[in-house]
Amino acid sequence: MRHNKSGKRLGRNSSHRAAMMRNMVSSLIQHERITTTDARAKELRKIAEKMITLGKRGDVHARRQALQVIRERHVVTKLFDRVAPRFAGRPGGYTRIIKVGNRPGDNAALSIIELVEEELSPRPEKAKPPTETAEKAAPVAAEVKSEAPAETPSKSAGAPAETEKAESEGEAKAEAPVEDEAENKKEN
């Protein structure tokens, strides 16, 4: 059983697989885009992301760790000097896999794996369409805000707030008899 053995074997023994991945990550960093099978691209992505993260660290120890995987000095130099600074503000996701189709000879699924070019920009939040409950809640909140200053006056302004309430109640009482008189006229 293959418990705790991560990664695909890709039909190769371990030394052949390691050599193939070293060559592929070197080619990816050197050319910034390569075409390979889907399974290889997915395995390559793991190693390439780690190498770019090492390049972002930029210290001597990170450079030596990268040289353990990428055996070509000029590729490591390109990684640390040109590739990694492009991704300084990006917290991962340095590669993109694009599915191309099938290879004519053996019908294997092919993909292009490439380094991401564009700048990272945070996604804008989608504006939710206003719902009826939101429209009803908004006017109520506006009324509460407009009444809040009147309810919390200073000590010297305590009497005017009470008179405003009394006046508004008096206006409501005054309007009620007018409506009653109008109804009485209609009945007659």
How would you classify the helix and strand content by structural class? mainly alpha
Low-confidence stretches: none
Total number of helical segments?
6
In this structure, how is the largest beta sheet organized? 3 strands, antiparallel
What percentage of residues falls in helices of 4 or more residues? Answer: 55-70%
Beta-strand fraction estimate: 5-15%
Order of helices and strands: HEHHHEEHH
Cα shape: extended
What name does CATH use for the topology of the largest domain?
50s Ribosomal Protein L17, Chain: A
Tally of strands: 3
Domain module count = 2
**CATH arch. level architecture of the largest domain:** Alpha-Beta Complex
* N-to-C CA distance: 99 Å
Strand order of the largest sheet: 1-3-2
Q: Quick one: CATH class of the largest domain?
A: Alpha Beta
User: What is the residue-mean pLDDT, rounded to a whole number?
Assistant: 82
| Rg on CA atoms, Å | 36 Å
Describe this structure in words.
- The chain folds into two domains: 14-115, Ribosomal protein L17 (50s Ribosomal Protein L17, Chain: A), CATH 3.90.1030; 134-187.
- α1 (14-31) packs across α2.
- The chain has a three-stranded antiparallel sheet with strand order 1-3-2.
- By secondary structure, it is mainly α.
- The protein is 60% helix and 11% strand.
- The chain has six helices and three strands, in the order αβαααββαα.
